[in-house]
Amino acid sequence: MEPSQLQLVLGMAIFAILFSIGIGLAFRDFLRIIASPRAFLVVLLCQVLLLPGLAVLIARSFGLDHVTSFGLLLLAVCPGGVTSNVFTRMAGGFTALSVALTACNSMLAVVTIPAVLFIGQKLLGLQAQVYAIPLDYLAGQLLVITFVPVVLGMLVRHFLPAAAQRLERWLLPLTTALFFGLVVCVWLLEFDRYQQAFLLAGAPVVTLFVAACALSILIARALGLERGERIAMVFEVGVQNPPVAFFIAVSIVHDMALMPASAVYAVVMVVGSLVIVPLLRRLSSAQ
Asked: What pTM value is reported for the model?
């Protein structure tokens, strides 16, 4: 299979996964977020401010060069992606909260990315620039990749509950297995590039992921968030959206040298999350 065909199939798998996630959601789940928005606001602030702050601290601690530092910061300022929704669902977290945060973060990104990126460059001692993020790109990410399949799944659950119950039993496990199988295929096709990226940015990227997940757990527990909210927070803060970082590096900043950190994070966040999921499920069942 050609790389372009693989990317197309991967996109279709993501659409199918989010459709199956939507089948498991009800409109009242989102009303619950509106009625009690504390967890939503806490996680959103951690996504927008905590992760970029960690990236700056880690870049300075490791003494990274300017390009690698900027690449790490660029990854951290990008909104979370649909992968966080998948892992939240797998771990038994509050999936509606995860989906709502992904949608909101994507809409705010046209403002938050340029602003936080500018401040982060200043803190890293770089020549700060303001980069405009095209709204149509982010809107496409939000509408096509996230909003449409989730809402379609919710509509099926609402109007055809019996069919939704039958679909939910096999569709999510099947599409999730397909998705991760395709991800591994992408990694194998780009193995040489990923290997080089790990040599350039492996240690700081692993540190960023571990620190983001650990701090998320500590903050969530300190604030008394519910179990499902804590799980959603771990993956919403720890799991980023490397494709958005790739797009900004190539199409807006025009610097391919910024991509290694995002490439490494794409691997680290998936492997790390697959380790975290059973641990969170086990801790939840013990409570």
From this structure: 0.83
